[in-house]
Specification:
six-stranded mixed β-sheet, 7 helices, single chain, alpha/beta, Rossmann fold
């Protein structure tokens, strides 16, 4: 017999960033949302307006805080931030493009992504270190909201780390999980067991582009 539902989590990636024109290692680099990113989060907010949300969390970086506040506003909720939910630290690569990293640190980019669990940029973190930072804080948040629904707005690397942990996937395989800007993941706990109801959804963005008059709703 399945236990009663406990915490429900809407795990969301922040919207498009102001420097998204070229792939960059933002990590702890504190970049804001672009105008498109703000609009993406307004669509997420519209899709969650009818849901009963009890709390909203994010990292303490601008792109997640701005995203989370857009979601929190219709529910009249105050945002709570934690530095533990920050993106992977890219150390000396912070703010650089892939091309710039290749020029300054030849061969290291490929080496990192061939061994993402243990390799890290100079002065930065490995994804294993990210997991050890993020998972305990996630558990703490979940345990503080039994039988409630919460929103956590985080980063692509953070979301993949949490999802791969919940799925008991090796960290090396985490990039099989797609997390576009403003992607929505839904995790429903039954007792201590998480059920991943939705992973990497962005249909709320695509459908509104095709039919602006229609509002996508998450459950």
């Amino acid at each position: 017999m399945k236990p009663e539902p406990s915490c429900r989590i809407y795990l969301i990636r922040h919207g498009e960033t102001a420097n998204a024109g070229k792939v960059r290692f933002n990590g702890h680099h504190d970049v804001e949302l672009s105008a498109k990113g703000q609009q993406q989060l307004r669509l997420v907010s519209d899709a969650l307006k009818h849901c009963s949300i009890d709390a909203v969390y994010s990292s303490d970086l601008k792109r997640t805080m701005e995203s989370a506040r857009i979601i929190a506003e219709p529910h009249d909720l105050k945002l709570t931030t934690f530095p533990e939910l920050r993106e992977l630290s890219f150390g000396e690569w912070e703010g650089l493009s892939v091309d710039e990293v290749e020029q300054k640190y030849p061969g290291q980019y490929l080496k990192l992504f061939e061994n993402i669990d243990i390799e890290c940029p100079p002065g930065g973190e490995s994804f294993l270190q990210l997991q050890n930072r993020v998972v305990p804080k996630f558990r703490e948040i979940v345990q503080s909201h039994p039988s409630q629904s919460i929103v956590i707005v985080a980063h692509g690397g953070v979301n993949r780390t949490l999802l791969s942990h919940l799925l008991e996937m090796p960290i090396k395989k985490m990039f099989r999980l797609n997390q576009e800007y403003a992607a929505v993941n839904i995790i429903q706990y039954y007792g201590d067991e998480p059920v991943l109801e939705l992973i990497g959804a962005d249909h709320h963005l695509m459908q509104r582009e095709a039919a602006p008059e229609k509002v996508v709703k998450f459950q």
